[in-house]
Design goal:
The protein is an alpha+beta fold and 574 residues long. The protein has eleven helices and 28 strands. It comes from Pontiella sulfatireligans. One of its GO terms (molecular function) is metal ion binding.
Length: 574
């Protein structure tokens, strides 16, 4: 409660005005609303999402402490996520004390402040309630109360920026708690390092977590037991079996010496020349900020955020098919264009349904039909994916996720028109999108398709894989592209190898990367992007971090002087 009071009292207006800002993520009881932090770097804040799959969710409730009683104008920052001629799908009410504000929120285009009118606050301690009206992704970012009735808050209104306190000094900081990040942290911990693992969700596993539910693929590498404690079984994508594997992953990390910072989101770095000195992270609910100092950092964020903030070289999009070696005719970058572009593999939103003992209704969703058209389905697998040249997988991530919501709800609504599906109800729809590709941080070596097709062997091999190269493009139905379904193009090959030089930044001295942001071309990512492979990358970087500490060197120094030690730790014998 103390931090929340400080948050709401931080705004000191003029001598005659009182102002209170309530961040929705700080609500003490979130009811059925879920906390969504995926788009903080785009829209400014975590927010509450009424993710009810067509059924209104339970109210979110909190207590607000006002500096004084009296009349306040109320503003609510929300968004109509599907503007058009139809009624906004994500509508909700707000109740302050015992009064229901006479406005439906979530009805204006884009993230904006809606005027909720004047409310009389009778007590300095007053309850606030968010009341979902639809179950279709209503969203609330913040509420702003002011006694200055003429004041209109802007979208750039100053947020709480508490003092950043020290989290301590570590040997290694790993940012990102997917399979790669978990592997990196555990490997470094095994070697006796002090390790901080920062992850922006409450559950570990990234795409393999029970929030996204993609099973792990690939092989486990030279040491085929290391990943066992964080791996998943081969359940069907979207399966609730992911819950058990997520619990196992947490037990594994809890039994280690890794210091976990779950629900902490990195938001910046401090540099000293070409070295990262520290990473700053903020708790996604409380807003508390901490600074993590270390000698070595590993970026396992997927989007390459740590490298991006540090100024690391990176790529986004498809290279020319002729950039690497001989090009198309001799198996260069297959499926790539002659001219580079910004196309990458897309993000999937998994979902499924179940059959009940009696018929079940599903609301009309006219706002979804522009996307779904006449497509009908009662379940969704990995193919439910969106990638588009005009949509950036980082900058437009919320629009991409929301587009998939429309595809899912519209397709399910079409399927419900079939009498055979009368008893079918939605069981689970992910609200966290599973990304395949975005930024790729550049190392001393760029892994390409040629490295796979020619089975190139490297002296610094630390990852082994044999999964086919697999890249995705939008599917065509009846000859027309479908912008929410994808198809896979495969190039099947034998065993191939990834060198350590792909796992450290070529221009940031103490930064390594593991996961889909490793140093590769677009097509080069196609095979090793799966999670057992990225877990191998994480393990290699964690072991490399231990050598950096032991020999007082950096990752490039490990490559130049300590390859034998690194490969032995990874399970390879020269």
């Amino acid at each position: 409660m103390a931090w929340r009071i400080a948050l709401m009292m931080m705004f000191a207006g003029s001598a005659t005005a009182s102002e209170v800002l309530v961040e929705a993520e700080s609500f003490s009881d979130k009811g059925g609303w879920v906390l969504d932090q995926q788009f903080v770097h785009q829209m400014g804040s975590p927010y509450l999402l009424a993710h009810g799959m067509g059924k209104p969710v339970a109210d979110a409730v909190t207590t607000v402490i006002f500096p004084q009683t009296g009349k306040y104008r109320v503003w609510v920052r929300s968004k109509n996520w599907v503007p058009g001629e139809w009624k906004a799908p994500g509508r909700f009410h707000v109740k302050v004390g015992g009064r229901l504000l006479p406005v439906e929120f979530g009805t204006e285009t884009g993230w904006t402040w809606q005027d909720g009118g004047i409310v009389d606050v009778a007590g300095k301690t007053t309850g606030v309630r968010l009341i979902d009206l639809t179950g279709f992704e209503g969203r609330c970012d913040a509420l702003f109360f002011t006694t200055d009735f003429d004041k209109v808050p802007s979208d750039t209104i100053e947020r709480l920026k508490p003092e950043t306190v020290s989290a301590g000094q570590f040997d290694l900081v790993v940012v990102g708690g997917g399979i790669a990040g978990c592997g990196a942290a555990l490997a470094a911990d095994r070697q006796g390092l002090t390790v901080a693992l920062i992850h922006d969700r409450p559950l570990l596993g990234g795409n393999a977590s029970s929030e996204v539910r993609v099973h792990t693929l690939g092989i486990k590498g030279a040491d085929d037991t290391f990943l066992d404690g964080i791996d998943s079984a081969h359940w069907k994508n979207g399966s609730a079996e992911a819950v058990k594997d997520t619990e196992k992953r947490h037990r594994t990390l809890d039994a280690s010496g890794v210091k976990q910072f779950l629900s902490w989101q990195a938001f910046g770095v401090e540099m000293h020349g070409q070295r990262i000195k520290s990473v700053d992270a903020r708790h996604i609910e409380s807003g508390k900020a901490m600074r993590f100092e270390a000698k070595v950092f590993i970026d396992c964020t997927g989007d390459g955020w740590i490298g991006y903030w540090a100024g690391a070289d990176f790529r986004y999009g498809r290279e020319s098919r002729n950039e690497f070696d001989e090009g198309w005719d001799k198996h260069g970058e297959l499926w790539s264009p002659e001219t580079p572009d910004n196309r990458v593999m897309g993000s999937s939103v998994l979902w499924n349904s179940h059959r009940l003992d009696q018929p079940t209704d599903f609301p009309d969703v006219p706002w979804a039909m522009e996307v779904a058209k006449d497509h009908a389905s009662i379940n969704g697998e990995w193919q439910w994916e969106l990638s588009h040249n005009d949509l950036h997988q980082i900058d437009d991530a919320e629009e991409i996720r929301d587009h998939m919501f429309r595809a899912i709800y519209g397709s399910f609504s079409n399927a419900k028109k079939n009498p055979e599906n009368a008893n079918v109800a939605l069981k689970w729809v992910a609200h966290i999108a599973g990304k395949r590709e975005s930024r790729r941080l550049m190392g001393d070596y760029i892994f390409t398709m040629k490295d796979v097709t020619e089975n190139r062997i490297f002296p610094d091999t630390v990852v082994t894989e044999k999964r086919a190269i697999d890249v995705h493009y939008q599917e065509k139905l009846k000859g027309e592209p479908v912008d929410f379904l994808s198809e896979a193009l495969f190039y099947r090959t034998g065993e191939y190898y990834i060198p350590f030089r792909c796992l450290y930044s070529r221009n940031i001295e103490n930064l390594m990367m593991a996961g889909r942001c490793f140093s590769c071309s677009h097509v080069g990512l196609g095979g090793p992007r799966v999670m057992r492979t990225t877990g191998q990358m994480g393990i290699a970087t964690g072991f490399a971090a231990s050598l950096c500490i032991e020999f007082d060197t950096n990752p490039r120094g490990v490559y130049k002087n300590h390859l034998t030690e690194l490969r032995r730790l990874c399970g390879y014998e020269d």
